[in-house]
Amino acid sequence: LAQLYTPLNQLGYTYRSMNQSLVDTERLLKLLNEPTEVNDRENAPDLIVENGEIEFDNVNFSYDDHTTALRGVSFKVPKGSSVALVGESGAGKSTILRLLYRFYDLQEGQGRILIDGHDIRDVTQSSLRKAIGVVPQDPVLFNATIAYNIGYGKLGSTSEEIEAAAKSAQMHDRILSFHEGYDTKVGERGVRLSGGEKQRVAIARTLLKDPPILLLDEATSALDTSTEKDIQNALQNLVKGRSSLSIAHRLSTISSADLILVLKDGQVVEQGTHKELVAMDGLFASMWADQVSTTDEHHPYAESRSSK
Ligand code: ATP
């Protein structure tokens, strides 16, 4: 994969005005090797987002003839609310994000995906993608200064705007600890940032982009407690007032999500808040019990599990 990113980094330098979230987004959606199959309709209008409400309406999707990735998936992300996707590997979480970003179009009879009531197949891809911010698991940084890496969320951002975004993303103090501050080069040829730091740079970038809709992919690797806290604070600042869909691997990080969808074999098998799902005593409750027992035996929920 690294080989593919080097030329992409070069491209980033040359075409600063390109769709600048492309590199990260493709990484998130694991699509570097997959062709984009989607074409805009002739004279398709731009998407105009008023509220940022997302709706999946009976979505069925297969990548090929052998497997069904999503079956009858329906849910709504109301304006400004946070919806988290959980489920084992292969359950369909990334497919939901890929479809919303329109890497594939649903065919006739496969259901609909709507934003503020507009079918996303009917609007231009570029306007759709402009409305969506992406924070991937493992963001790719350009071999450039940290200011550049944050600032490309919005072309022409001032240093004050970049600094404000870095502060909100809990990254400002770390940046000041570098010898050259915001002018420090990062990436392969500069200071190597940790996974948690790269994610906070991506959050700062997305704050500058200021999209009404967010797609988030939580890092799978365990982070130390203070990094985890910084990221959670940064994410809280980012999701405020926006509609968000996140893939969660650590169930503890989504306990405050407005809605959690539990996926299994491409279907939503349970949904509710964290509290409701634990009380339901089904798949989510057993996933939660497993994670609690492997992370912290003294967690309040560990007790209710061991008394079962
Ligand atoms: P993970 O947590 O491992 O990322 P996931 O829940 O995101 O998993 P998806 O990537 O959405 O799962 O995959 C859903 C199903 O679609 C799986 O059966 C998977 O094998 C299949 N799938 C995913 N991508 C492709 C592809 N490009 N071609 C064919 N099948 C695919």
Automatic annotation (TrEMBL):
Subcellular location: Membrane
Comp. bias (Basic and acidic residues): 295-308
Record domain ABC transporter: where: 54-290
Superkingdom of the source species: Eukaryota
Region (Disordered): 295-308
Homology family: Belongs to the ABC transporter superfamily. ABCB family. Heavy Metal importer (TC 3.A.1.210) subfamily.
Listed name of the protein: Uncharacterized protein
Species of origin: Pleurotus eryngii (Boletus of the steppes)
